[in-house]
Write a structure and sequence with these properties.
CATH superfamily: Alpha/Beta hydrolase fold, catalytic domain
Protein name: Lipase domain-containing protein
CATH topology: Rossmann fold
Strand content: 15-25%
CATH class: Alpha Beta
Mean pLDDT: 92
Family: Belongs to the AB hydrolase superfamily. Lipase family.
Main location: secreted
Pfam families: Lipase (PF00151)
Subcellular location: Secreted
């Protein structure tokens, strides 16, 4: 029985598509077996992409995806989170959650937690701008594991987030038309899977430099069907970049070409610039991109098509295609 369960996890949680790399929009790249990936504090960690995953942990995640932590912030409790618990209706009803407000769900990346970036910056940007529910997802029980294990557990974590949102709405009201799911790096694929669990009915899903290693042809990655409007902001998509670097959403934005960012000298800085830019647009809605006909235009900075604001907090936003926007070196960019 245990062997069967482990086989199910292996086959369902990490399935590669048969799409050839030349059909993927963006840079064609492969990762070496051994790479360095930064944790939530910027410390570089050596990663073996072919490492044997922790099957016991994955088995537990598969059985108990509802064990994610959910922490609510509103204007009534901007600095002190209220804990929301799956299948505990009182934790919802006794909180400041208001189903009539927009709800923003934020998922962190690898070796991170609800207190690490981009959670605080994006949370504060939203609460300064409008009266919303902010739910920080803490999936550190899995994200704290080795990278190969974390990748394989992302689909189950995402399904758990989707199930929690469904429970939240059924318990205390709300509508998926007012939900915006935002994830950084590995968290981008988490919210993609959450949106898929919800039938693609969440108003917006935003991937902030969706993780690249082990995701280039992974069918569980963020995709355009995960929400009503799905947006990706690519900032570190170079051949050795931490981001996926290819179009995955309805609208894919490539700030400054999507490979390296002004003022950055490291891949870590480029990668983080995605959430920094997004938080700034929530406050200012000032970064306006031009549509591109191809990645050749993106790379050559010759995009002259229709204009679309990158990021922002508009729940009714629409758009399709490739977009480039050029930014400044420093906040607010």
């Amino acid at each position: 029985m245990q062997l069967a369960l482990l086989f199910l996890i292996a086959s369902s949680a990490y399935v590669a598509t048969a799409v050839p790399l030349e059909d993927v929009v963006g840079l064609e790249k492969t990762y070496p077996r051994y790479i360095e990936i930064p944790d939530g504090e910027g410390i570089m960690r050596n990663v073996d992409l072919e490492a044997e995953p922790d099957w016991e942990l994955l088995s537990d995640v598969q059985r108990n995806a509802a064990n994610n932590g959910y922490f609510l912030f509103t204007r009534r409790n901007q600095n002190s989170a209220q804990t929301l618990t799956m299948n505990n209706a009182n934790s919802i009803r006794n909180s400041n959650y208001d189903g009539n407000r927009p709800t923003i769900v934020i998922a962190h990346g690898w070796l991170s937690n609800r207190n690490t970036e981009p959670n605080p910056t994006i949370r504060n940007a939203y609460l300064r701008r409008s009266d919303v529910n902010i739910i920080s997802v803490d999936w550190s029980s899995l994200s704290g594991s080795d990278y190969a294990t974390a990748v394989r557990g992302v689909p189950a974590i995402g399904r758990g987030v989707g199930q929690f949102i469904r429970f939240l709405i059924s318990t205390a009201g709300g509508n998926l038309n007012n939900f915006h799911l935002i994830g950084f790096s590995l968290g981008a694929h988490v919210v993609g899977n959450a949106g898929r669990e919800l039938g693609g009915r969440a108003a917006r899903v935003t991937g902030l430099d969706p993780a690249g290693p082990m995701w280039l042809t992974n069918s569980n990655r963020l995709n355009r069907n995960d929400g009503v409007y799905v947006e990706a902001i690519h900032t570190d998509g170079g051949l050795s970049g931490l981001g996926i670097g290819s179009a995955v959403a309805n609208a894919d934005f490539f700030p400054n070409g999507g490979n390296s960012q002004p003022g950055c000298s490291t891949s870590f800085c480029n990668h983080n610039r995605a959430w920094e830019l997004f938080a700034s647009t929530v406050t200012r809605n000032h970064l306006v991109a031009n549509q591109c006909n191809s990645m050749t235009q993106v790379n050559a900075n010759t995009c002259r098509g229709s204009r679309l604001n990158m990021g922002n907090d508009d729940l009714r936003k629409t758009g399709n295609g490739l977009f480039r926007v050029n930014t400044a070196r420093r906040y607010p960019f």
